[in-house]
Write a structure and sequence with these properties.
By secondary structure, the protein is mainly α. Helices cover about 60% and strands about 5% of the residues.
């Protein structure tokens, strides 16, 4: 058994693997993340399936930027600890199972309007004078609620 391990350690493939692992630049933060590879993201997605990795990295980025006195020495450890907490929160938070309902009570949202429909509605509102009435009301409210017309 010992000779097998010795032969494996002395093999060129093993030495190349060690060199590659040692030569990987260290993850660090300097007003943004540096040396985070796709392999890192892949490993984190596997380890933390409930976490949105890129979103959490951006939240960490903003936190580090906002807290300059709390810089870290070991950024890989910081990232893993952050992801573990995010994973725990993600597992505790209930998932939405029912369909979202609009505040009007409609389950289905109406289809999006075309550019022509929007232009026609804007034209109609301008012609009806309602948009001017709303603007005048807002101006009055901004002035302190005076009831006299200008």
């Amino acid at each position: 058994m010992t000779s097998t391990l010795r032969r494996r350690r002395e093999s060129p493939a093993f030495k190349n693997e060690i060199e590659r692992a040692v030569s990987v630049p260290t993850i660090h933060w300097d007003n943004g993340w540096h040396n985070i590879t796709d392999d890192h993201r892949k490993q984190w997605r596997k380890a933390f399936p409930e976490v949105r990795i890129d979103a959490e990295l951006e939240v960490m980025n903003q936190w580090l930027w906002a807290n300059p006195a709390r810089r870290k020495k070991n950024y890989p450890r910081f990232i893993i600890s952050w992801m573990q907490r995010a994973q725990e929160v993600g597992m505790v938070r209930p998932k939405r199972v029912e369909q979202a309902v609009h505040c009007s009570g409609n389950v289905k949202l109406p289809p999006a309007k075309t550019e022509e429909e929007i232009a026609a509605a804007v034209k109609h509102n301008k012609e009806s004078g309602k948009s001017q009435m709303i603007a005048d009301t807002l101006k009055q409210l901004k002035r302190g609620g005076s009831s006299e017309q200008t």
